[in-house]
């Protein structure tokens, strides 16, 4: 007998970085499945607008994920207004594109704080809230860069490797608790985050593609969520090859070209917004 999907109807779901891009697409997909969704985004106006567009009592609130006390308070408010959190999607993230030798310290700190430290904090909060109820699902947004390395993405890749490692470890800790965890690893996604990247022989996916796989992983729980799915077997198969062969294959597919030939002018608006993405972390650095 085929497995029946877990219903998301009436479930309380939180999506960080949900005001635009992948986060907004995930929020919409969850609402479409009947979930009660809370969107948190550094841009409070974008969060409120996304919530208004999705309707069905969706909440949209300002959230700086680098403000850990504020993140905790945000989750407390969601539980006060919607009830116990069933799904937490740690989606907020930034992706500056630059050679490591040219990257300034502030950019490195921002990525560590937004892409990794905030995910650690969000996962910790989710575990503390879900395990006592013996139910829940944590979704951590990583990247194919969390399993591979790419030029001009050294710090970003390091943070996403960290998210994968965090999720692997927490998976062990959650055994027999009733709480699930998934790590999502998309390839290039057509959003503002990838603006100006050159093309390769690997076709990009859409935010809606990622959202559909997230919903599928919630309905039929699984840990590794590759988007597209074909990347999973490809990563596993190439892992056993000698490094020279793996790198030759990567060059043949031109997977390094989107980053090496990125159009910096086309990325300027995104890079400027990303540079203002961790106000709490910046305030802490200034006070040190």
Keyphrases for this structure?
11 helices; 7 strands; 49% helix; 288 residues
Structural class given helices, strands, pairing? alpha/beta
Order of helices and strands: EHEHEHEHEHEHEHHHHH
So, CATH architecture? 3-Layer(aba) Sandwich
Based on the structure, what is the oligomeric state of the protein chains?
Answer: single chain
Strand content: 5-15%
The total count of helices amounts to 11
Strand arrangement in the largest pleated sheet: 3-2-1-4-5-6-7
Rg over alpha carbons: 18 Å
Q: The biggest beta sheet, please?
A: 7 strands, parallel
Average pLDDT rating: 93
Cα-to-Cα separation, first versus last residue: 60 Å
Q: Kindly give the count of domains.
A: 1
Would you tell me which CATH topology applies?
Rossmann fold
- Overall morphology: globular
* Assigned CATH superfamily: NAD(P)-binding Rossmann-like Domain
User: What's the CATH first level?
Assistant: Alpha Beta
Helix content: 40-55%
Tell how many strands the DSSP assignment holds. 7
Describe the structure.
The chain has 288 residues and is an alpha/beta fold. It has helices at residues 21-32, 44-54, 68-82, 105-130, 154-173, 207-219, 231-239, 243-252, 257-260, 264-274, 279-287; strands at residues 12-16, 36-41, 59-62, 87-90, 136-141, 179-186, 224-227. The chain has a seven-stranded parallel sheet, with helices on both faces. The termini are far apart.
């Amino acid at each position: 007998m085929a497995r029946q999907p877990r219903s998301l109807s009436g479930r309380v779901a939180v999506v960080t970085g949900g005001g635009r891009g992948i986060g907004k697409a995930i929020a919409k997909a969850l609402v479409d499945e009947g979930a009660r969704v809370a969107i948190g985004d550094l841009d409070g106006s974008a969060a409120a607008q996304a919530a208004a567009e999705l309707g069905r009592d969706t909440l949209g609130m300002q959230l700086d994920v680098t403000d850990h006390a504020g993140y905790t308070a945000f989750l407390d408010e969601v539980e006060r207004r919607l009830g116990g959190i069933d799904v937490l999607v740690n989606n907020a993230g930034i992706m500056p594109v630059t050679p490591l030798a040219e990257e300034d310290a502030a950019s490195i700190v921002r990525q560590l704080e937004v892409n990794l430290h905030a995910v650690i904090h969000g996962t910790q909060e989710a575990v503390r809230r879900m395990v006592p109820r013996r139910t829940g699902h944590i979704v951590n947004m990583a990247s194919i860069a969390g399993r591979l390395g790419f030029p001009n993405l050294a710090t970003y890749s390091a943070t996403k490797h960290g998210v994968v490692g965090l999720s692997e470890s927490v998976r062990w800790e959650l055994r027999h608790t009733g709480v699930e965890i998934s790590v999502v690893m998309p390839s290039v996604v057509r959003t503002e985050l990838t603006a100006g990247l050159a093309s390769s022989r690997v076709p990009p996916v859409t935010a809606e593609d990622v959202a559909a796989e997230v919903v599928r992983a919630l309905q039929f729980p699984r840990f590794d969520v590759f988007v597209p799915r074909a990347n999973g077997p490809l990563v596993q198969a190439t892992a056993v090859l000698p490094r020279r062969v793996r790198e030759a294959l990567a060059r043949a597919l031109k997977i390094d070209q989107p980053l090496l030939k990125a159009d910096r002018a086309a990325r300027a608006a995104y890079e400027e917004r990303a540079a203002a993405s961790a106000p709490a972390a910046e305030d802490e650095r200034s006070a040190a």
